[in-house]
Specification:
The chain is of the alpha/beta class. About 20% of the residues lie in helices and about 25% in strands. Mean pLDDT is about 80; it is low at about 115-125.
């Protein structure tokens, strides 16, 4: 579908990987984009090249947000997510099947050991 790079209100980068249908690649594609964003962020390239209108970026590693319709999640997704390093802060967000009519979050899944700490996306009104 489409991938989004955005900022939280606190200036933390957030990689949003979106899928419209069941896709076993969802977590790994998101992780791949997350690693690339972290690499460029560590070199100061987003500010250097004028991304985000000159807003100050938080030094923290990016968030990884994986989004898909709640009834179209590949059965292997949970297994794959269990292998993601605990150093990566991620959330899996299941949205209502009628997302074309309006986005409604049905569930949020996070690693048991930590939680996404209250970061609210600037451009996302879903919840």
């Amino acid at each position: 579908m489409i991938d989004i790079l955005t900022l939280t209100r606190e200036g933390r980068l957030a990689v949003v990987e979106l899928k419209a249908d069941e896709d076993i690649h969802l977590p790994l594609q998101g992780l791949d984009y997350w690693a690339r964003v972290k690499w460029h962020h560590g070199r100061g390239e987003f500010l250097k090249f004028g991304y985000f209108g000159g807003r100050e970026l938080a030094a923290e590693a990016p968030l990884l947000l994986l989004v898909a319709p709640s009834l179209h999640v590949h059965p292997a997704t949970d297994v794959i997510l269990s292998y993601i390093s605990p150093e990566i802060e991620w959330a899996f967000i299941g949205i209502d099947e009628r997302w074309r009519e309006g986005v409604k979050v049905v569930f949020r899944k996070r690693p048991d050991s930590r939680r996404v700490r209250g970061h609210e996306l600037l451009s996302c009104a879903a919840s």
